Structure to design on (432 residues):
């Protein structure tokens, strides 16, 4: 007899809740959703009492939300990720609106699963990343198909659009690691396999540049329906002078000749996320000697350490620690410092031990501890603190869907974030 492993519906998995900072806003939401189970109404009310952005999403997506909260959130997420594909043949405008609808709903679902303790941090960031992957891949398919129909990709048939006709988007940074934050930009490097096009590679290059620009615009543009993801293409090789999509051969030549330490560190997290995934995997495999060196490179280690200090100095983050205005990402003891701690040790030892080449911060810390590169209690502490920092970061961003990492400058603002974290303000300040 098989055991039922279907995840339980949303309400049955609630285990925590914010504290309503704005009681009246909370009461408005409670009245609007009074037909739902009391424990769900309570979460919605307290969430609306902390976040004007989420209160607005609840009002806009109320009919959908009622149905979604009656199901297992994993099934709801899967449906949301599938839905935009139906608009793939309907044109860029229709696809863009379908993706914006999916973004609003995934944002609301992920927030409520986060705030209610239904999902752990990795499931929340994984859901946001899965939507980003889907959006990049569908947008690329749509615009590559247009180039093929216009005869701008010599030798490519319309069936090739499903794999980008040789173009691939590499997810970098938090997207590559499956760790997107709540209001994150996405960092992409767009490349194409020039070997598919021979003497027509330059013509194909021009087409893929158009695809990349149109894809980034579709994802980034703000309309009445919102936006999908702000898209940053500046991590590509020599971004000041190169076009937004270059050949794999040109990229490989760049990294072999002038690639820098920060680019090696960036490629720890790199992952093909849209288009020709197999070609992207081959490119990353070819880049392995650049990223993962067999010898200990002490100059590179010092360079990474100096870069961290330069960031702190540039952002004027050397001042005494205070709760007001503290930057959860770049400030002392912040998210970036935990990531740097992990990545520099991966770069030191990962060339000789492939087991250390984990894209994720938590996974990287666990691997380093398992192989004796850091003490187990240090890995455990940093993992707990990393997750705690990321949860505070998410609350900061959920208030108004702003890509911020700074604690508010006012005591009232800090009190709102404390309530959003479900804590008394004094305890929150002391803990932070």
């Amino acid at each position: 007899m098989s055991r039922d492993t279907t995840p339980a519906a949303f309400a049955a998995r609630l285990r925590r809740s914010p504290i309503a900072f704005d009681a009246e806003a909370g009461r408005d939401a409670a009245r609007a959703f009074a037909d739902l189970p009391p424990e769900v109404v309570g979460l919605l009310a307290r969430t609306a009492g902390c976040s004007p952005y989420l209160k607005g999403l609840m009002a806009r997506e109320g009919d959908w939300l009622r149905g979604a909260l009656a199901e297992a959130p994993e099934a709801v997420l899967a449906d949301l990720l599938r839905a935009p594909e139906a608009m793939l043949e309907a044109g860029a405008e229709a696809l863009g609106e379908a993706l914006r609808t999916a973004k609003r709903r995934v944002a609301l679902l992920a927030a409520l699963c986060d705030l209610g303790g239904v999902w752990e941090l990795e499931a929340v960031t994984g859901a946001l990343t899965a939507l980003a992957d889907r959006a990049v891949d569908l947008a690329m398919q749509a615009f590559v198909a247009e180039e093929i129909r216009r005869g701008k990709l010599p030798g490519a048939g319309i069936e090739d659009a499903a794999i980008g006709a040789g173009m691939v988007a590499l997810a970098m940074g938090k997207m590559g690691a499956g760790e997107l934050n709540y209001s994150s930009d996405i960092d992409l490097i767009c490349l194409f396999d020039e070997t598919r096009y021979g003497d027509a590679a330059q013509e194909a290059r021009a087409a893929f540049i158009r695809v990349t620009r149109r894809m980034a615009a579709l994802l980034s543009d703000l309309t009445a329906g919102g936006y999908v993801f702000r898209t940053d293409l500046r991590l590509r090789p020599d971004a000041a002078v190169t076009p937004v999509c270059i050949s794999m051969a040109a990229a490989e030549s760049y990294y072999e000749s002038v690639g820098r330490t920060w680019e090696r560190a960036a490629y720890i997290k790199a992952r093909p996320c849209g288009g020709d995934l197999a070609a992207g995997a081959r490119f990353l495999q070819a880049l392995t000697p650049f990223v993962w060196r067999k010898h200990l490179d002490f100059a590179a280690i010092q360079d990474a350490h100096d870069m961290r200090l330069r960031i702190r100095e540039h952002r004027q983050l050397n001042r005494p620690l205070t709760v007001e205005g503290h930057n959860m990402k770049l400030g002392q003891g912040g998210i970036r410092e935990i990531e740097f701690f992990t990545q520099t040790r991966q770069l030191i030892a990962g060339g000789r031990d492939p087991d250390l080449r984990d894209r994720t911060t938590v996974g990287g810390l666990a691997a380093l501890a398992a192989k004796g590169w850091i003490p187990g209690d240090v890995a455990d502490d940093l993992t707990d603190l990393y997750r705690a920092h990321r949860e505070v970061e998410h609350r900061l961003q959920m208030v108004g869907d702003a890509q911020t990492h700074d604690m508010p400058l006012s005591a009232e603002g800090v009190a709102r974030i404390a309530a959003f974290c479900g804590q008394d303000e004094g305890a929150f300040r002391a803990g932070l």
User: Anything to note?
Assistant: Residues 1-5 have pLDDT under 50 and may be disordered. The longest strand covers residues 186-192.
